[in-house]
TrEMBL record:
Keyword field: Folate-binding, Glycoprotein, Membrane, Transmembrane, Transmembrane helix, Transport
Cellular component aspect of the GO annotation: plasma membrane
Compartment(s) where it occurs, according to its Swiss-Prot or TrEMBL record: Membrane
Pfam families in the cross-refs: Folate_carrier
Gene3D superfamilies xref list: MFS general substrate transporter like domains
Listed name of the protein: Uncharacterized protein
Protein family membership: Belongs to the reduced folate carrier (RFC) transporter (TC 2.A.48) family.
Broad class of the protein's primary localization: membrane
InterPro entries from the UniProt entry: Folate_carrier, MFS_trans_sf
GO molecular-function term, one example from the UniProt record: folic acid binding
Transmembrane segments: 236-256, 261-278, 290-307, 319-340, 352-371, 511-532, 544-568, 580-603
Amino acid sequence: MLKNVEEFMRVEIQTPVKTYIGATGCSISFDLPYKANDSYAKMRRILNSKLAAIAEKKPERMKFEKLTEFRISYQENECTRKIIDNDRDLFEAICCHGIYQAYKTSQLITKIEFAFVSDELNLAALIETSLFGATPQNSNQYSWYFQPIHRLLPDPRDNKPNWELRKTFEKLEAEKNKQTMEAAARRMQAYVKTTILLCLYGAFKEFRPTEPYMYEYEHVTLNISEHTLNNQVFPIWTYSYLATLIPAFLLTDVVLYKPAIIFEAASYTIVWLFFVFGRGVLSMQLVEVFYGWATATEIAYFAYIYVKVPKSEFKAATAWTRAALLVGRFSAYALAQLIIGLKLSDYMCLNIISLVAMFIALFFSIILPKVTWKDAYQKKLEAEGVSNIQDHLKVAKYKDYLSIYFRNIHRDLYTIYTDPFILKWSIWWALANCIFLQVTNYTQTLWGTLSEEDNRFNGITEALVPLFGIPADLLTQKITLNWSRWGELVLSIGSLVQFGFLLWMSQSHQIIVLYIGYIGYRIIYQATMTIAQCNLATRLHNDSYGLLFGINTFIALCLQSVLTIFVINVASLSVRPQFVVYSIYHLAVALIFLITFIILFFYRLRRNRIIAA
């Protein structure tokens, strides 16, 4: 086969080639006579002539192996492009990374090299469909450079254009466009189906009408004192969450997300089984244990969608999956307010409804499409720059995926947290989550300091949070801000407003003020968390979503545990002084990010002046 290639390239195309035979494949390289002072028109004619000759000859005896990679070498550097599953972007790569780079940087292209593995493929067909049958993906950016090449238009000075050849290419282009559209439609259908199922799961797992009246149920119905709840029951959730989160963020990527989602749904189901059938302090402590398990594995819900949809859809997928949670909460809290406000039933009815919803959520978690370990393994191999990936996949086993995952976990962590952009949003994630968990845990206790009559609108208040949060959440996908430049300022302003809400709540004895402050605080948190999650997922390149989200949440839990020990065990603060501490915490976060923004702003300003000078 290699001799045929050499003979064809040497005789028919007048291009000498070099071949190399390896253990699992071969490589073929040839030189293109581009020079730094060549004009664009001349480079176009050279490439056209060689590629046209290949396409016109159609050497049926030529059987190339499956293309996996090519490399363009310049005088100063090289550009390597992976071709996965016979990817059809070869033309874009040659043009955009070859001619464009040489033309704009005046670098001499020294070699173009193709690598192949053992799966026969006709080179002529590949060139016709890949090189001449498709516009470059970044056509807006490169069209004025490459429009003549991609349609193989003859040189304007040629009086005899090859119309037959052009018709052949146009036919191939139409066939390829049809195949591309069909493949895109199938991918979109799978993406939409997965997103809908995940949103249904998210909505039902958040459909828990018990939650707005959980404190009243435990305090009034079960007759557990406020002191016992605040010191012996509620803190257990934090420690359970913290203990479970370590294996959660280590294993979520390993078990490929779906088992972790099923575990979350099962834990929530057990929680409401205890609510329905349990009594006493011990039962409520077990509730907090399983509640901690469920919330710790919630990172799988947020990470799952990013391995099932393309990066171009990350912003929309993030907004819709988080909005689904808000839809579930709004429906549950509105129903709870209706039942309790109109005295249609008691708190036990809310527990039973919540239990039924958890069983439905468990069903949806089971029917979610699974993530195959081979897909994850392939991405790991790509990240390592392994050649002949398809050969590795044919003989690979699940233990190979585990091996490469744990072997590279320290490298993944280093790569993640040495990125300043990821580090910035991760710090905010941890700091904001820490105080958010404290506020949501003790808000009902703050409401409980007022008379029971004042607490009758707890349900509608909890329902208004997601009602206002849903549009705020969906609007985040419309924001086109340079987060690298303005992110610190946005986070600082958000934390400052949250400081005001919490301080206002700590000093007020009017239930309407407590309700408004709580709603405002939650809406700001929801919007900024959606932005943070999308920015982190988009920036992450090694697909370790569970690891990143899990570690950020783990740090938040560590901070919350320290804060809980300080305000509960050491200082023994009542609930109102606790909220003063929480507000000061948000003020500190706002100042940290504001100072960071000011420093970076003047640094960029000074750097731009130096460059301009």
